[in-house]
Amino acid sequence: MLILPFRHIFSNKLGTMPSLRILERLTLVLGGVTLGYFAFYHNLKRKSALLPTIPETSPSLPVPYGYPGPINDPFKRQAYQTSFNRRLRHPDWVFEHLTEESLKKGPDVDRSKSYFKEDTNIPEMFRSKLRDYFKSGFDRGHLAPAADAKFSQEALNETFLLTNIAPQVGSGFNRDYWAFFEEFCRRLVTNEKFSDVYIFTGTAYLPKKEADGKFYVKYQLIGDPPNTAVPTHFYKIILAAKKDKNSPDGISYALDSFLMPNQRIPHDDSLEKYIVPLNAIERTTGLIFFKDLENKIVTPLCKTVKCIPIPPAKHVKESLREVEERKILPLPKE
What we know:
This protein is α+β, with helices and mostly antiparallel strands and 334 residues long. The chain has helices at 6-9, 20-49, 130-133, 153-158, 170-174, 177-190, 278-285, 301-304, 313-328, and strands at 72-76, 81-85, 90-98, 139-142, 165-168, 196-204, 208-209, 215-216, 221-222, 228-229, 233-243, 251-261, 275-276, 298-300.
């Protein structure tokens, strides 16, 4: 539609009032423009009637009746924090802060009083169940170890909630190499004298190249119905800190990240074999770890201490007892 300035219509060289001829011409022009506009609008309206109606929405408005979710439930316990994945029925990650004080055993703390328990804070339809693990072939693997939470009975009990548990291969992994790895973490405090050890422990699902040359992520589900996922890998990201007068902020930091397959691992494997770049775990999990460390000077942990898996004293005693028992067993008859 043609729009002319107000003063252009009502002024000319001869005075303040326009001549009749000019007004007639302007009337014809404006009339033609107006008729053309209404014809265009009518034609556009006919075409739009043939198209589906799109409701008017705005991305700034909330989703009617609520957003879907959540997929994760965060919990803060006495000895750890966890983010439980409702779809996979196990934690995505668990965080611990180990200190000399936190590793001390409290009075009357007794592991025999602790037992695995479903977490009723999770809605039942998304909950990991005890029966999922029954005869599954997998251990109920702690992400925050029970041995890290002996300072109180409640803290110890909380490590047995299934929101801290994921399916792990038992012999050769959960009961062996993984347990050695957990002991190594504790010794960073008790033996290596780091004042603070921060640990993220979590689950991962890595792709594997198949016969057709393509990569697939495949994993087992346990339970009836099969809901609880079995991770292909587990990781630990360890940040150890101690006072250091030579460091800019008076604290030195050491960090390494480890990624292990959920399978039997030889006892004599070096921990350094399982070191991966931190961003490799971040790409796999979609999570960013220790992002506020970017401006700190951090050295590799295994360049600071010897990264050797250490069997806990209890594990050594049990292994020796098993050897002695095998010695006294009668030989099978031929």
